Amino acid sequence: MKRNLATTLTAVFVLGGCFAPSLRADATKEPAPFPESPFQPDLTPGYVVIEGDIQIPLAQFQALTGGGIQAAGTFGPATLWPGGVVPFDFVTTGIGAVSAANQTAAINAMNAIAARAGVVFRAAVAADGNRIRFQNSGFNNSPVGMVGGTQIINIVSWGSEIIICHEIYHSLGFQHEQSRLDRGNFVTINLANICGSGVSVGCTSGLAAGQCCLCVDNAGNCIPCNFNFGTVNNSFTYGPYDFDSFMHYGPTAFTCNGQNTITVNAPWDTQWQNAIGQRDHFSYYDRINCRAQYPFPNDRWLQRDRFGLPFGTFQDPFLSTTLSDALAGVPSGGTLFVKFGNNYGGVGTHTKAVTIVAPIGDVKFGN
220 in the Ramachandran plot: left (φ > 0), alpha (ψ -120 to 50) or beta? Predict the structure, then answer.
């Protein structure tokens, strides 16, 4: 998984959090719309949009689009929210005001995440220097990770809880799934079908009839959208490539001709080509990865054969070859995640109530 991850992140159990249980809003499979320009008046100050819904500082956008399109490397790892505590508020006046019904939709989405990972969303107070702020908009977008100060989450798809969760995941530090450094083993990016590629008349950059302008530079000129398909350097992934993640692009993202810009490689194409980009549920690794970055208080991780200090966290798991040693560090009623497949000595009598989870499988306990 990634600390700023592209998406194989997520979690599994319920955290009480600060919201009462609530019914989930109806969700759709339609991905969030892509803005025609990254320069929107309602973004976090000093930020522009790339990849359809990710806000980055203007200087980073200029580095991506100035002097040619970079084939890879969008921006670096994100900052997680300390202690998993995320203060939030809403725009309540003006054109960006969030209605009471849409505030409830955002709270339901935060509630859904808090039920699966150790993220505590709470109403912001005056002393909170960092917070997320939900704003009504014509697009869906968010910065990645805690960027400092008040950061804007723009939402138009208030009727889709998972689309709101997608944007909140960005603010928690998660990237798009297809930004993984190993994505080339699983999907193929079809540059010829990306807006502005220039391969056909309909794919050239411009405003004339038959041309395509889904991306512009800081001067307002139409440019190729290739930079939206970069991978994220210095990122870390956990688990297999997650075609089912709600952080994955759909197959026709930034298309100039209606053809697929992302092709799922064999042998996964039959199952996943028309299913990537879903926006109606948390995938298994959406849950596991978020919980790894934002654990519940009684979560612990185990990994044998590694170096580092054993704190039982995802980044610094327990170091042991036996189940008994690991269980000694897990609170009663807690969950022990075995990070990677391996064999562990399991002989003995174990009486502590603990849930053991092997997210990647292939774990054996015994002699």
Answer: left
Residue with tokens 């990865």: 289
Nearest to 131 by CA among 175, 193, 85, 197: 85
User: pLDDT tens digit string along 300-312?
Assistant: 999 988 777 889 9
Active site residues: 167
Q: Which helix (H) or strand (E) holds 85?
A: strand 85-90
CB of 260 within 8 A of CB of 251? yes
Angle subtended at Cα 58 by Cα 252 and Cα 278, rounded to the nearest 5 degrees = 25
Query: Domain residue spans in the chain?
Result: 298-366
Query: Measured between alpha carbons, how far is residue 14 from residues 165, 171, 198, 295, 297 in Å?
Result: 16, 20, 49, 11, 12
CB neighbours (10 Å) of residue 322? 15
The pTM (predicted TM-score) of the whole model is 0.85
DSSP states of 105-152: HHHHHHHHHHTTSS-EEEE--TT-SSEEEEEE-SS-BEESS--SSEEE
pLDDT tens digits for range 258-269: 999 999 999 999
- Interatomic CA distance for residues 230 and 247, integer angstroms: 15
